[in-house]
Write a structure and sequence with these properties.
Layout lengths: L3 H18 L13 E3 L8 E3 L1 H9 L3 H11 L6 E7 L3 E6 L1 H14 L13 E5 L11 H19 L3 E8 L4 H17 L14 H14 L7 H4 L8 E5 L2 E6 L2 H16 L3 H22 L6 E4 L7 H10 L3 E4 L2 E4 L10 E4 L7 H14 L4 E7 L5 H11 L7 E6 L2 E5 L2 E2 L12 H8 L1 H9 L7 E4 H5 L6 H21 L6 H6 L7 H11 L1 H10 L3 H21 L12 H27 L9
Parallel strand pairs: 5-6, 5-13, 6-9, 13-14, 15-17
Antiparallel strand pairs: 1-2, 2-4, 3-4, 7-8, 10-11, 11-12, 15-16
Helix pairs in contact: 2-3, 4-19, 5-15, 5-20, 6-7, 6-9, 6-10, 7-10, 11-12, 12-13, 14-15, 17-21, 17-22, 19-21, 19-22, 20-21, 21-22
Length: about 600
C-alpha cells in the first residue's frame, strides 16, 4: 500500500469523528469506504468513495456530503489539493515531493521494495504438485508446480513464514502397480513369455527401471510366468464399437490386484527391491525436473511416514460417532457435513483407503502449527475438497484453516494446430519436453498468467516468439533495454549521478511519466493483493502493464543525448531524471520476475 494512503485514511477518520460529533453520522456508524488509486491522472492520485457510502445514513446527497467532508479535511503536507468529482467522489492530488517518494523508496530498498512484514506472525504451508511417483511429470503437473511456487513466493514476500511441501504417495496401490509392472518387465528380461496387464504401467521407462535389477540379480528373483499368474482373475478384454472401447470380458482391476498379491507372495522381502527401485527412480527424476524448473520444497513428506497415524485419526472420528461398518467396510459419515455420499476409510480386506491417509496427513499438517494450509490440486479433484474438510471438522479442527486451489488443465497449441497431449503408448507430453522447447521462463510465466480456475491454451509458437505479443519476452525486454541504456551511458563517457537525478525529478512532468510513477507506486499494494488472494496473475498483469508503459515512453522520449551532440545543462539534468525513473522501472520489473521464478536478463 502506498505510504500516502494511511495519511489520507487518518484524515478521513478525523472527518468521520467530526461528522459524528455534529450528529451528521450516527456514533456507531462503521466506515467501509475505500481509497483507491485513480486510473486517470486528471482525477488525481487517489479517490475516496466515503461520501457515496455514508450519504444514505447521513440523509444527504453524496455531493453535498462530499463538500462537508472536504471542508473538514485537515491540511496534509503530502496532499497538494482535493477535488470533488462526479456524484461525490473525493479526489486527492499528491504534492510533487510525495509523488516522487516512490523513486527514493525503490532506490533505497532495491530488491526488498514492495515486500512487507504484514503477516510476519503467521505460519502458512503450501502443498503442491504431489504427483504420484509413477511416471515423469507432464505439462499439467507443470502448471501446479509454477502456480504453487509463485503463491509461496508471494506469501513469503508479504511476511508469511512459508513451508513448501510435496506429499509423496509412496505407500498406495499405484506404487504397487508400478512395482509389479517393473517385476513383469524384469521377468521379460529373464526370457519369460509375459502378457503385460491392461492396467499396468506400459511406458518404456518401466523397462529402464527393471534393467539395473536384472543386471544385479540376473534371474535369481525370477518365477515362471505360469506360476506368477496362477489363480489371478482374467484380465480385461476390449473390443471397439463405434470408435469406443467396450469391455468384452475380464476385470482389469481384479487382474492387476491379483498380480500384485502374487508378486508380494513370490518375492517376499525381495518385493521391496522392485518397489524401492521404482519409487526412487521416478522420484529422483521428479526432483531433478522440478529443481531445473526453479521449483523447490522445504519438505518431501512420505505417505509411508503417516501410516501409523491413520488408526489414531480414525479412532478420533469413531469417538465422535462419525464412523460405521457396512458390508465389511468402515465408512465415514461425510454426508452429515454436506458431502454427496459417505466415504470408505477402511476396506473389508483391512486396507486403508487413500482418503484415510489424507485424513491423517491433513490432521498432521494442522498439528504442526500452521495457521493456514493451502493445497494446490488438479481440477479433477474438485469432489475431494468436501470430504477432507468434513473429516477435519469432525475431528474438531477449524476447516477454514484449509484452502484448496484447483488448477485447470492445459492444452498445447502450435499456432492454429493443437498438439496431441499423448502418444500411442499413452505417455503424456512431459514437463521436461515443454521446458526444452520454450524455456523455463516462458513456461513459468504462461502457467500463472491466468486465473488457476481458467483453462490454458498454451501456444508454443507464441511462447518462443520475440515480439510484443509474447508477454514474457516484452517484460524481460524492458529490463534488458534499461540495462543497455546504462551500458551506452558509460560508453559515451557519461555517468549516473543519483543526487543530480533526485534534484531534477521535477522535470519528469509528462503525462506518461506521471503514469509510470503512479504505476510504480502501485507495486506494493499489487504484490500484497496478489499474495493474499493467491492470484499470481495479478502480478503478471501488472508487469505487462508496466513494461508496455515503459516501452511506449522509451519509444517516444529520448533518454540519452544523440551521438555527437553537446547537451545543455538542462538536457543533462533531464537525462539524469529519466535515468532514475528507468532504473526504478528496471528494479520493479526485476523484483516481480524473481517472485514469479523468472530471470531478469541484462541483454536479449
Amino acid at each position: 500500500m502506498s505510504e500516502q494512503v494511511p495519511a489520507i485514511e487518518q484524515s478521513l477518520d478525523f472527518v468521520i469523528e467530526s461528522l459524528k460529533a455534529d450528529n451528521i453520522l450516527p456514533t456507531d456508524w462503521q466506515n467501509n469506504s475505500q481509497i483507491n488509486r485513480t486510473k486517470d491522472q486528471a482525477h488525481g492520485d487517489f479517490a475516496s468513495n466515503l461520501a457515496m457510502v455514508a450519504s444514505k445514513v447521513a440523509g444527504m446527497k453524496p455531493r453535498d456530503l462530499a463538500e462537508k467532508i472536504v471542508a473538514l479535511l485537515p491540511k496534509h503536507a503530502d496532499v497538494a489539493k482535493v477535488e470533488i468529482a462526479g456524484a461525490g467522489f473525493i479526489n486527492f492530488f499528491l504534492d510533487s515531493n510525495a509523488r516522487f517518494a516512490v523513486l527514493d523508496n525503490i532506490m533505497q530498498q532495491k530488491g526488498d521494495f514492495g515486500t512487507s512484514q504484514t503477516f510476519a506472525d503467521k505460519k502458512i504451508q503450501v502443498e503442491f504438485v504431489s504427483a504420484n511417483p509413477t511416471s515423469s511429470l507432464h505439462v499439467g503437473h507443470g502448471r501446479g508446480a509454477a502456480f504453487g511456487m509463485s503463491v509461496a513466493n508471494l506469501l513469503e514476500a508479504v511476511g508469511y513464514q512459508v513451508g513448501r511441501e510435496y506429499y509423496v504417495n509412496d505407500a498406495g496401490r499405484q506404487m504397487d502397480i508400478l512395482a509389479t509392472s517393473t517385476y513383469i518387465r524384469y521377468l521379460e528380461l529373464c526370457g519369460e513369455p509375459i502378457v503385460f496387464p491392461v492396467n499396468g504401467y506400459r511406458g518404456d521407462y518401466v523397462t529402464d527401471i527393471a534393467k539395473p535389477i536384472y543386471q544385479e540379480f540376473s534371474d535369481k528373483l525370477k518365477t515362471s510366468w505360469g506360476n506368477f499368474v496362477k489363480d489371478v482373475p482374467a484380465d480385461a478384454i476390449f473390443s471397439e464399437k463405434d470408435g469406443e472401447k467396450v469391455l468384452v470380458s475380464g476385470d482389469k482391476e481384479a487382474h492387476i490386484d491379483g498380480l500384485i498379491d502374487n508378486a508380494k507372495a513370490n518375492l517376499g522381502d525381495n518385493y521391496r527391491i522392485f518397489h524401492e527401485k521404482a519409487l526412487y527412480s521416478i522420484l529422483s527424476d521428479i526432483q531433478d525436473d522440478l529443481a531445473d524448473f526453479n521449483v523447490h520444497f522445504d519438505k518431501w513428506f512420505s505417505e509411508k511416514s503417516i501410516q501409523d497415524a491413520i488408526i489414531p485419526a480414525l479412532e478420533r472420528l469413531n469417538e465422535q460417532g462419525y464412523l460405521y461398518e457396512k458390508d465389511g467396510n468402515v465408512w465415514f459419515k461425510s454426508t452429515e457435513f454436506g458431502d454427496e455420499k459417505d466415504r470408505v476409510v477402511r476396506r473389508a480386506n483391512g486396507q486403508f483407503t487413500y482418503f484415510a491417509s489424507d485424513i491423517a496427513y491433513h490432521k498432521d499438517k494442522l498439528d504442526r502449527g500452521f495457521d493456514k494450509i493451502i493445497d494446490v490440486w488438479g481440477s479433477d479433484h474438485h469432489g475431494y475438497i468436501k470430504r477432507v474438510k468434513s473429516a477435519l471438522t469432525a475431528m474438531g479442527y477449524d476447516a477454514e484453516r484449509m484452502d484448496v486451489i484447483l488448477v485447470q488443465f492445459v492444452t498445447l497449441w502450435r499456432g492454429d494446430e493443437q498438439v496431441q497431449m499423448s502418444s500411442r503408448s499413452g505417455e503424456f507430453v512431459t514437463l521436461r519436453e515443454l521446458r526444452e522447447e520454450v524455456g523455463n521462463d516462458a513456461a513459468r510465466f504462461y502457467y500463472v498468467a491466468r486465473k488457476p480456475e481458467q483453462h490454458i491454451d498454451f501456444d508454443l509458437q507464441l511462447a518462443k516468439s520475440q515480439s510484443k505479443d509474447n508477454a514474457v519476452y516484452y517484460i524481460q525486454y524492458a529490463h534488458a533495454r534499461i540495462c543497455r541504456v546504462l551500458e551506452r551511458l558509460e560508453e559515451r563517457g557519461y555517468s549516473y549521478d543519483d543526487s543530480i537525478a533526485k534534484q531534477s525529478q521535477s522535470l519528469l512532468n509528462l503525462l506518461i511519466e506521471n503514469e509510470l510513477i503512479s504505476l510504480l507506486s502501485a507495486y506494493p499494494e499489487t504484490l500484497q493483493r496478489s499474495a493474499v488472494q493467491y492470484e499470481p496473475h495479478i502480478l503478471t498483469n501488472y508487469l505487462k502493464e508496466l513494461a508496455s508503459l515503459f516501452h511506449a515512453w522509451y519509444n517516444d522520449n529520448r533518454i540519452l543525448p544523440k551521438d555527437g551532440e553537446t547537451p545543455s545543462d538542462d538536457e543533462l539534468n533531464l537525462m539524469q531524471a529519466r535515468l532514475r525513473l528507468s532504473k526504478a522501472v528496471r528494479q520493479v520489473v526485476q523484483n516481480g520476475l524473481i517472485l514469479l521464478g523468472l530471470t531478469a536478463p541484462t541483454s536479449m
